Amino acid sequence: MACFLGSLLTGSLHPLFAGAGGLCLGEVHMEAIAVSTAQSDSAAAGYELAEQIKESLSSAPHAVIVFAAPHFRHSELLQALSDGCSPEIIVGASSAGEFTNETLGVGLASALAIHDPEASFSLGVGTNLKSDPAAAARSIVSGFKGHGDYRFPYRSALVLTDALAGYADALTDQLTMATAGEYQFFGGGAGDNATFERTTVFCGTKVLTDAAVALEILSRKPLGIGVSHGWEPASDPFRVTQAEGLRLVSLNGLPAVEAFEEHAATKGETLDRSSPIPFFLQNILGIDTGSGYRLRVPLIVNDDGSIHCAAEIPTGSVVRIMKSSHQSAAEAAERATDAAVAGIGERSPKAALFFDCVATRLRCGDHFATEVSAVTSRIGDAAMIGCNTHGQIARAEGQFEGFHNCTAVVCVFPD
Asked: What is the pTM for the complete model shown?
């Protein structure tokens, strides 16, 4: 699998939108700047990001959100960034494809720097995620200030988690419980270009595994969050008769792979158990929630016919094999962005974060640029960064909630 994926994971920094203006926004209240670098040296990359931030903001940033490819020595990059622009908070994650308003590539480092005197930012961190996601959630929330600071009516948090630790669904549920449902959450699982070897999250200049971090954002204006995917059912329903963590053991009492093989046969295709990714990228699973489908990406066929997935699938749930297209992926990004923009009311977007799955990028190839363009075309001159993640997090009023795969998640900050 790694060999096949490696042949797809090539690219470099290149212009996405010819003639686009600068990314620095106006200096009324909130300031934001989206920056990126193709520097391969870790410290040099951090300093370059810092210099771009210093040139664009009138004051040191309150928060810097960083996405950096897995080849970087992240601690060196973060230390250089911290030394170079003195942010109060740094938070971020390793990523599997990085983009801004003007750049799109693989192997990059990007950052969104925010200075906003009308908001409050805090950092929460939870460790030992794999063994106790509830304790990790409580630890994260212990770093929040919203429970004692009532100056700000709107409470949100960017959540980034070590994808390989798993339990992102449980973490999201526990965060909702620990905050009594008063916060909306968005974010994703750290990436490593789909090699599934090591994913990390950033807390200041520290690089953590088996952990999750959250940037608490308290504000007087609402943040808008939108969630959408472009997949629809392509098979009859299956009952999950056994699942163990990330391992889907059986569907309708039979080894899980047999359902995919039968589906492939109906399409005149063949599923190669030794190299299933080409088929799986086009035929993922959707968990029927009663109001839509929460997506899961199959990854590996085990010797016993079970399938290792990118996220957990509950035993007893009903699933279908799903289908999609490049056009439907772009339309999903449009819907997610429109919902996020609608969430800020009459105000204009000032900054934005966009997450979608590494599987979406691999499936779409060069067409993924169309999906990024679908977001930027709807947010005007707002500063935007995003990354391809190993799963996406979204929990907001009126939105499809939980931990997702192959789903576009957009958060918009108002001016």
From this structure: 0.86
